[in-house]
């Protein structure tokens, strides 16, 4: 999320939503504190993570004056649409689980409250800077508390790397060379695939390369989807596909599952949650896969991107913002709550202290051969680069799937550059259509 001031955000969104919505979004209601502290209150929390009701039950047992009721929701764009509709009708919940990339959309629609006055300054120290930054505007407003994260890593078949004499790449140049070497030694295999069916991975790779897809210039949004960092990522993967060094099939299909399970593909650029996916997609590989840091663009650098992750936000509709913020802080920083999130919801907590303790002290069963899995993962998570999200991420992601899907099938390097331009143009056109000011 770009670093912009609340005043700048207000100016950018006033064209579309008017001053009343912005007042609800940016100004804490002084009556909320009194209401939250004067007696028992009931809070409603919309969330999609499994087992969240069990986590809330721990809170309720210790906080009889603030009862939290979890209402299970769909995730993704469905929840974003639902929360915007609900808050505009003043029927929204008190809290909502929101993906990082959805926060600007929710803020610009006046759906979230600024919790800056309710969140102590030292709370941000519980999270990696790149994660905390995605929940704030300009460092002063706090629109959510980080809940979980998905730092990118490199996963590979340790046994097959040894069989073919391959070394784990530490740079993207080494990654490309490894892909070519494997093709020469085993033409029927591929190091990995470039998949155009999930823009989240591409966004994370661009993030690592320094991309800033949405930034703020004066009172206007600036779209940098075709910036230097993203072009570097596009040319790199497009080039490997064009020369046939890697596969170009989408992930999560039966064919992809088979390739991962049989060793037709030896590696996967994914996130910390990969063990769960591999357990289902490639059961025969248990104990054979290993994890390493993401390759770097320059040798010696130490940065990763992220793929996925969500936060806990207080809505502008809440009549008890102080109580809601208190729960959000507890949920994402209290050791007991974090342990429950890992156990009941299966998430990788954004709080750094929880990434090597409790349920994460032991490696995933699938990676029993790598007992320091979570210790290494925690070190990688600290290096997560800041994200830069805007108010129409869904449009950009949909366009990516369409345009890069065509380019991947065509296997022409020039097609990937054209696809990137098309995604940028579609995103800019949509912002203008919605009434946002857009910088050239």
Plain-language structure description:
- It is built from 17 helices and eleven strands.
- With 440 residues, it is an alpha+beta fold.
- The protein folds into two domains: 6-149 and 306-371, Periplasmic binding protein-like II (D-Maltodextrin-Binding Protein, domain 2, 3-Layer(aba) Sandwich), CATH 3.40.190; 151-305 and 387-434, D-Maltodextrin-Binding Protein, domain 2, CATH 3.40.190.
- The radius of gyration is 22 Å and the shape is globular.
- Mean pLDDT is 90; it is low at 1-37.
Please describe the structure with a list of short key phrases separated by commas or semicolons.
seven-stranded mixed sheet; alpha+beta; two-stranded antiparallel ribbon; D-Maltodextrin-Binding Protein, domain 2; globular; 14% strand; 45% helix; 17 helices; disordered N terminus; 440 residues
Secondary structure elements and their pairing?
Blueprint: H1 6-26, H2 30-37, E1 41-47, H3 52-62, E2 66-72, H4 77-88, E3 95-99, H5 103-108, H6 129-132, E4 136-137, E5 141-142, E6 145-157, H7 158-163, H8 172-185, H9 199-208, E7 214-217, E8 220-223, H10 228-242, H11 254-262, E9 267-271, H12 274-281, E10 289-293, E11 306-314, H13 321-333, H14 335-345, H15 373-381, H16 393-410, H17 413-434
Parallel strand pairs: 1-2, 1-3
Antiparallel strand pairs: 3-11, 4-5, 6-9, 6-10, 6-11, 7-8
Helix pairs in contact: 3-14, 9-10, 10-17, 13-14, 16-17
């Amino acid at each position: 999320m770009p670093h912009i001031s609340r005043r700048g955000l207000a100016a950018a969104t006033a064209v579309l939503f008017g001053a009343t919505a912005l007042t609800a979004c940016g100004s804490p209601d002084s009556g909320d504190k009194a209401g939250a502290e004067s007696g028992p209150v009931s809070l409603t929390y919309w969330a999609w993570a499994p087992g969240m009701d069990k986590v809330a039950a721990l809170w309720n047992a210790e906080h009889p004056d603030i009862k939290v009721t979890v209402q299970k929701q769909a995730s993704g764009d469905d929840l974003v649409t639902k929360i915007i509709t609900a808050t505009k009708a003043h029927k929204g919940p008190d809290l909502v689980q929101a993906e990082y990339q959805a926060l600007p959309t929710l803020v610009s629609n006046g759906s979230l409250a600024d919790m800056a006055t309710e969140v102590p300054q030292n709370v941000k120290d519980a999270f990696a800077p790149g994660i905390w930054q995605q929940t704030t505007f300009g460092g002063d407003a706090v629109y959510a508390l980080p809940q979980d994260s998905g730092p990118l890593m490199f996963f590979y078949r340790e046994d097959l790397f040894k069989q073919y004499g391959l070394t784990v790449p530490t740079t993207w140049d080494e990654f490309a060379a490894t892909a070519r070497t494997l093709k020469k030694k085993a033409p029927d295999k591929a190091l990995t695939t470039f998949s155009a069916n999930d823009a989240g991975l591409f966004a994370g790779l661009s993030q690592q390369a320094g991309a800033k897809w949405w930034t703020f210039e004066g009172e206007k949004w600036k779209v940098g989807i075709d910036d230097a960092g993203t072009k570097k990522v596009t040319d790199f993967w497009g080039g490997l596909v064009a020369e046939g060094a890697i596969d170009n099939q989408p992930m999560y299909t039966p064919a992809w599952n088979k390739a991962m399970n049989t060793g037709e593909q030896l590696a996967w650029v994914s996130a910390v949650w990969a063990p769960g996916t591999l357990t289902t997609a490639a059961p025969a590989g248990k104990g054979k896969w290993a994890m390493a840091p993401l390759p770097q663009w320059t040798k010696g650098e130490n940065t990763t991107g992220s793929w996925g992750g969500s936060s806990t936000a207080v809505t502008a509709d809440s009549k008890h913002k102080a109580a809601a913020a208190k729960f959000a802080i507890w949920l994402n920083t209290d050791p007991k709550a974090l342990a429950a999130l890992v156990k009941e919801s299966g998430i990788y907590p954004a709080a750094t202290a929880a990434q090597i303790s409790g349920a994460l002290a032991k490696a995933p069963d699938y990676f029993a051969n790598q007992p320091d899995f979570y210790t290494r993962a925690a070190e990688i998570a600290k290096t997560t680069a800041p994200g830069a999200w805007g108010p129409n991420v869904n449009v950009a992601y949909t366009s990516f799937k369409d345009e890069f899907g065509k380019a991947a099938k065509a296997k022409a390097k020039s097609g990937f550059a054209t696809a990137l331009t098309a995604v940028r143009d579609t995103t800019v056109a949509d912002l203008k259509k919605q009434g946002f000011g857009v910088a050239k």
